[in-house]
Structure formats: structure tokens, C-alpha cells
Amino acid sequence: CTPVKYRPNPKRGKSFHRYGKYEKAKTVGEALALGSYPADLLFDYEHGHLQAFPPFRKKPLDINKVKSLEDMTETDMVIFRFLAFVDPNRT
Fold first, then answer.
1. CA separation for the pair 70, 89 (Å, rounded)
2. Residue 61 and residue 58: Cα distance in Å, rounded?
3. 28-54: pLDDT as tens digits
């Protein structure tokens, strides 16, 4: 579980309301469960709205080496589905 911290809500429109729900999250998984889209995680991180803190994985998850879906967390699966959607050649 990667710990995170969001800064106060800087958004407008529909994303303002969605951000208001997930800005209280303490982990990436919790943010997703509270309504953050995977793309929100990237946008918020890139724009300084989200900070992530250790512990981090020593190596990125290599989906080709996963022997069973049981070895993946719910967060892993959400991020993998997003990656497969935005960059199908990478998965």
C-alpha cells in the first residue's frame, strides 16, 4: 500500500466533486476505492496535487511474470487494466 497525500481541492467542474471524494485517501488503493480514476492519479501526481511516500516496490510489477491473479492486489489489477487500455502494446 503506497501512502499518499493530496493537497486541498484545486479543481473545477465534475473533477472538483470527484476529487472532493478521494482527496481524503491515505493510500493509492483507497483513492481508487473512493472514486479516483487511474488517469486522475497520473494527472494529480504530474500537477503536484498528489504526493506518494515509501514504501515503494523495489521493481515495477511485471505482468508477464505474475503466475496467478491472486498474486496481484486490487490496485495492481486496476492499474494494469488502465495500462492495457491506454497502451495495449505495452501489456
1. 24
2. 9
3. 999 999 999 999 999 999 999 999 999
* Residues ≥6 apart with Cβ < 8 Å to 82: 37, 38, 39
Residues in contact with 91: Cβ distance below 8 Å, sequence separation at least 6, in sequence order: 63, 80, 83, 84
Q: Is the pTM of this model over 0.85?
A: no
Q: Which of 39, 32, 40 is nearest to 73 (CA)?
A: 32
Q: How far apart are the C-alpha atoms of 65 and 75, rounded to whole Å?
A: 17
DSSP H or E segment with residue 15: helix 13-22
Distance CA 10, CA 82 (A): 24
Grid coordinates standing for 55? 514504501
Per-residue pLDDT reduced to its tens digit, 51-68: 999 988 888 888 888 898
Sign of CA dihedral 55, 56, 57, 62: positive
